Amino acid sequence: MDNYARPxxxxxxxxxEHAKRHAAEFSSPETWLAQxxxxxEHPTAISVLKCMDGRINLSxxxxxxxxxxxxxxxxxxxxDLGWPHLGEVYSHHVAHVVGEGRRVLTLITYHYxxxxxxxxxxxxxxxxxxxxxxxxxxxxxxxFAFGGAHGTVYPVVCGFETDGDALVLHxxxxxxxxxxxxxxxxxxxxxxxxxxxxxxMHEQVRKDLLPLVYGNLEHIEKVRRTKREIDAExxxxxxxxxxxxxxxxxxxxxxxxxxxxxNLAEPIRKAAIIIHANMRRGRIPxxxxxxxxxxxxxxxxxxxxxxxxxxxxxxxxxxxxxRDEFPxxxxxxxxxxxxxDWRSRALEPIAI
Length: 352
Prior knowledge:
CATH architecture of the largest domain: 3-Layer(aba) Sandwich
Number of helices: 10
Number of domains: 2
Structural class: alpha/beta
CATH topology of the largest domain: Beta-carbonic Anhydrase, Chain A
Helix content: 40-55%
Strand content: 15-25%
Radius of gyration: 20 Å
Largest sheet: 6 strands, mixed
């Protein structure tokens, strides 16, 4: 339901109800069993570095069960493995997977629109070539940190065309494969295509990439049949900071800032400018916006307590930036803090 025109408190209530529904689905027996069955057949851990744009939902676009693809999201899709926190979080993810005897496939994504450049990535000023150059730099960083032979971690540059939700896979030899250009007749040839694109990819990893490709072909066809309306206008009314926002895959509602960059103030400023502009131009009501900080925890006790401290800190930090630089906008700021139980994906509001 379109809730852009509702009063701010109704929008906030709707958001937390949406989070509850996601947690209920994620922790249901059917979902839990589907995840276990999928991982038994496809053991490669799949992670994705991507923009905060809610249109980029790789689980939906590849028909993959929720909880399989591990997202790392940041405003503009900008990442640098030299950032201390990003390096720590990603390395911990790799170490956990390797400890289970599994390999890692990481999709480093950029996004663009075939129909209209202004439906592309605002974080790169709609310059797709600049975005592609950036993700190739991130790929080189991953290879430097985890090995260029790709024995354990295999990074893949991956485009996402948002009009049709189509993936574009960039191969190791400079070739690329636009899945929107394929038909059902090409499906039998896909294993050979992937082997040509990624000749140094471990056979198991390539087998586990194949279901994502098949799923994306099916999804592209569904999108073509539905002739969905493309909503290109910025109408974000949430500024979200932290991690654990995979439940918030909603287009043009939230600007999500991962806690990765050592200069968090800059993306907070950019997000505040966008939300302020949305109010001035009548895209959203000017009665308020939501600032939401979320931090995941994995165990009860000190791990959860530390997550609470992190969430409160990020709330204070972001609030201070907005109050100092956007006092008019700060008067309409509604602040919430939460922690997220990573096992159930339950969002738990906490006192600030």
